[in-house]
Amino acid sequence: MVKRFENKIWLSSPTMHGDELRYVTDAYESNWMSTVGENINEVEHLICKKVGCQYAVALSAGTASLHLAVKLAGVKSGDKVFCSDMTFAATVNPIIYEGGIPVFIDTEYDTWNMDPVALEKAFELYPEVKVVVVAHLYGTPGKIDEIRAICKKHNAIIIEDAAESLGATYKGIQTGTFGDYNCISFNGNKIITGSSGGMLLTDDEEAANKVRKWSTQARENAPWYQHEEVGYNYRMSNVIAGVVRGQIPYLEEHIAKKRAIYEKYREGFKDLPVKMNPYDEINSEPNYWLSCMIIDEEAMCKTVRGENDVLYISEPGKTCPTEILETLAKYNAEGRPIWKPMHMQPLYRNNPFVTKNGDGRARTNAYIEGKSVDVGMDIFNRGLCLPSDNKMSEEEQDIIIEIIKGCFK
Ligand SMILES: *Cc1c(COP(=O)(O)O)cnc(C)c1O
What we know:
Structural class: alpha/beta
Bound molecules: pyridoxal-5'-phosphate
């Protein structure tokens, strides 16, 4: 009989090492407590070196970097922008900040990221679109070559949301370099953290300079506060940068641990009717930020999700994400549902959605009948994120695996 965990097993919590405190203390003792200082300069330098980009601008959040990337891309009121559909809302909300209209592109099954076939379809439907925002979900690089080729053909700018994928590579190259403007995050649950923070990465010097200026209230070079453009208070604090600086040397170690967690789950679940979140094993190396699984269709018990609640009927040999998540919670372990696709969100009910078959809104009300009609909805309905915390011990993970196996009995 499995006992409740005494200490909660988290989805993904910060893993600290001690160096963070040293750099924060440096900031304190030198009194560089604002948005200027050695830690900021150093983290920008270290990330450029690690990722392989020319310029990095440290900001208060990944969302701030996405917002300024959308501005750099020149999105204006009423402009449609193609974007990943199955992702965190922060990927797409910045389009709204600038008055743009997100057009959601369905997901593919191979990497759970933007489907290039659906993207090409979207350009047929909306040839005027000039900007594409593409995320790498859960640390797994998407179909980068295909997406870049399509964007090149249609002359569209790419904004890469690498918030979850820092350290992941595609054909040996780091994510965060494939877009014109690229965004990373140091939020508390990411692969490394500053407690908060983010960065805009680019090889375009002029763009980097604009972001530096906009993020510090857009002051002109004058003896007084002179303004020609709208500014933002988006710069990273030197204290936060101290935390990030202490974490950067541990990125590879964090990835190795996350990878071990992923592989242990894969091995542990090999006799269950489930699959792990997939990746392109030939071309990509994820950072394994979150381990996820998807339940085979035949092993799904009956379940109906409304906007704010869910019902399921437990059956021998079958389960569903809700039952697994509830069971994990009972034992004091934290899993999560898959990001609910943006096209299913009440906020974005009226926005266009494109699948590999074309207009994804032109469908029957199959969802109401409990059937998935697009890839994102299907992964959301059958998938979940597993406890993926780097401080989880192997013994604890063994117990998690047993708990989940129990749901299929
Ligand atoms: C975390 C995250 C962001 C936002 O980063 P913050 O630093 O929390 O603002 C954006 N996109 C994705 C996909 C994320 O997971």
